[in-house]
Amino acid sequence: MTQQTTTKPAPTTDYTALISSLAKDARAAQMRLARMSDIEKAAALRSAAHALRAQKADILAANEKDMAAGRESGLTDALLDRLKLDEDRLEGIASAVEAVAGLPDPVGEVLSTDKRPNGLELSRVRVPVGVIGIIYESRPNVTIDAAVLCVRAGNAAILRGGSEAVHSNRALHAALAEGMAEKGVPEAAVQLMPTQEREAVGAMLKASGEIDMIVPRGGKGLVERVQNDARVPVLAHLDGICHTYIDASADPEMAREVAVNAKMRRTGICGAMETLLIDSDFANGEEVVSAILDAGCEVVGNEAAQALDSRISAAQASDWDTEYLEPKLSVAVVGGLDDALEHIARHSSGHTDVVISSDDKVTERFLNEVDSAIVMVNASSQFADGGEFGLGAEIGIATGRLHARGPVALEGLTTYKWQVRGTGQTRP
Amino acid sequence: MTQQTTTKPAPTTDYTALISSLAKDARAAQMRLARMSDIEKAAALRSAAHALRAQKADILAANEKDMAAGRESGLTDALLDRLKLDEDRLEGIASAVEAVAGLPDPVGEVLSTDKRPNGLELSRVRVPVGVIGIIYESRPNVTIDAAVLCVRAGNAAILRGGSEAVHSNRALHAALAEGMAEKGVPEAAVQLMPTQEREAVGAMLKASGEIDMIVPRGGKGLVERVQNDARVPVLAHLDGICHTYIDASADPEMAREVAVNAKMRRTGICGAMETLLIDSDFANGEEVVSAILDAGCEVVGNEAAQALDSRISAAQASDWDTEYLEPKLSVAVVGGLDDALEHIARHSSGHTDVVISSDDKVTERFLNEVDSAIVMVNASSQFADGGEFGLGAEIGIATGRLHARGPVALEGLTTYKWQVRGTGQTRP
């Protein structure tokens, strides 16, 4: 690791050298960023929001280029919709930047202090992680959302977005960089990968010591590739196979409403319920599954579940490990809490699991024994979101166990250092 | 990840299956361990200390087997000394277990709480990391030291020690397991790898999702191999290239005493000073280097440093990046704080760096701008140690930036989960 800055090499196919050069510039910029105050960083982000609005015309024109190329190359409507920017969406992006500017700065927080018998004064102080690589698909908004979270916590970002959005990303990045530069943020604090070559992504993933953390933002394919190839620590979640367990003591109406919401509010998000577990002693299983079916959801189930409604077909073994991300649900009638806990332990992806119950013994056991990033009582799993958790924004939801778990916001983009103040102590 | 326990397969060369089986048993045991109270875990460790003392004869006999084989195979005296157990060392191991039993249990600590406008109550609660793999060399004490730290924080451990210590490790593990089992700790909470085959280590390193964290304990070769091959997160430090910068304002006597201690107290530990940076305006550089030379240390330096003492020979470029771990020191006379910060940024391994100064402006800049796990003012870098930091014990010192940094003790063997308590909330 070094602060030494080097000038970028001439166009090259040595992607390791390219990444190394980007990372060195990022490191130098990050060191300066780390010394900026809360107020200075917030002002820079507000200036960026201003620039995004001021350069609306350029950004939308660049996006139209991407949209035209996308239609040309036959992108699906869904992908085109992700790619599209308009005045409302751009305003949404700019307001989100202002919202992040308004979040408390985690850097400098003293996590613990101690004075040793020999007089040494120890403190653990929150510092930025450093240089963060963001690898994402063709959602131009991520270019801004991810970069501003990194900068708010004093990190430098290296962004590599999807090729379909390359013009949009360049225009958005130009506005962001210009706005932040006006308030003294070094240009290299946020860099856009200068090439779309996949080898450059590979080099990014291998740049341990130069890039401190990689955050993949996208579908399972992208995240899997990043997790498999990365030598740099990765903050990511792969699956959201979220369970809801309805205990015998559950309030029937609450169970119905929470279950329908957990599955159907939005079926495509990682916090959507994929498996419903119903205690065989719960008296109102029929009403719950029929409400879900009536809401337009396909339901597969185990034998006991199929007995609840004729519209339920038989689940395959693979269903219990499937993240549908669509209006489809697997339902199992189970023999109580222990069965439910065992099913969840075997099939949960460790993202979010929920119990509906009015029995404190059941809810406390569920909270303690389900080993997932988020465990909920009597609420919809669709609340699994940094904004809903009051974190202001999220860089992602982590299902790994180390560093940060669940919704990751500014705090997850920091680490700590030990500061030790002595008066000449030597160790005996 | 699954709680399902399976019985171990018959002796096999399918190391992936072997590790998978060990890890599944470990996971099931860890789930039970996680539900044991602070008092129960502490009692189990005290019982283990008792068993270690009670089985002294067996343990020392097993160790003598290893020692004999080691002499046979021509191990160096240094390696034989690491391998050797005697009554005193065994008593030291047992007392260390009791000390860990006396440490506060980090599990269950509530890290933060929040109540959302919609009534959802959030809390972040500290939980064990889960299943931890420890890979170490032929120091039998690590078998116990590492295992008890894992167990104290509610983790299961899979231990793979060096082949030269195999009999000692089995005897130590047997006593540990028997002592803990008497207090209800499942046998699989601490497992010794049943084979010494290197392929089994490779399978351990690849077992992501089954093993949550790997801690290598040993020399640079071991740590490098683990870091290169692991798909499981690794908590490790590679180098301890620790710097001490003597500022112009430093008290001469303090500078001399701290520098000599930082280098010479023990030259073989990762917190030992390897490079001394002296401000060209510091008036007493000669006295400091001559004291280090007189203490029996070889010194190499840059030109200006060589002018301080005729016994100083010229440093090679590689010296600035070398962890000597012996009575050898590289010295550079630098042009002040900024030069020192740049040198450290370029050459530090991010372990521990020290400034000797009586100028608060200098010390605060050093504390803030040196990007290492531990930054110290006016103290010997040899204090970089979990015990000296009041952590009671350490599993290692981490120079990575994520999860845990610097001395890692019980807290570094935990993570957190989000617990959300609702009253039927659905997301609009």
Automatic annotation (TrEMBL), chains A, B:
GO MF term set: glutamate-5-semialdehyde dehydrogenase activity; NADP binding
Record pathway: Amino-acid biosynthesis; L-proline biosynthesis; L-glutamate 5-semialdehyde from L-glutamate: step 2/2
Compartments where located: Cytoplasm
Gene Ontology cellular component annotations, sorted alphabetically: cytoplasm
Tagged with keyword NADP: yes
Catalyzed reactions: L-glutamate 5-semialdehyde + phosphate + NADP(+) = L-glutamyl 5-phosphate + NADPH + H(+)
Matches recorded under SUPFAM superfamilies: ALDH-like
InterPro entries: Ald_DH/histidinol_DH, Ald_DH_C, Ald_DH_N, Aldehyde_DH_dom, G-glutamylP_reductase_CS, Glu-5-SA_DH, GPR_dom
Keywords (A to Z) from UniProt: Amino-acid biosynthesis, Cytoplasm, NADP, Oxidoreductase, Proline biosynthesis
Residue span, Aldehyde dehydrogenase domain: 19-292
Superkingdom of origin organism: Bacteria
EC number: 1.2.1.41
A biological process term (GO) from this entry: L-proline biosynthetic process
PANTHER family noted in UniProt: DELTA-1-PYRROLINE-5-CARBOXYLATE SYNTHASE, GLUTAMATE SEMIALDEHYDE DEHYDROGENASE
Family: Belongs to the gamma-glutamyl phosphate reductase family.
Function: Catalyzes the NADPH-dependent reduction of L-glutamate 5-phosphate into L-glutamate 5-semialdehyde and phosphate. The product spontaneously undergoes cyclization to form 1-pyrroline-5-carboxylate.
Name by which UniProt lists this protein: Gamma-glutamyl phosphate reductase
Source species of the chain: Qipengyuania atrilutea
Gene: proA
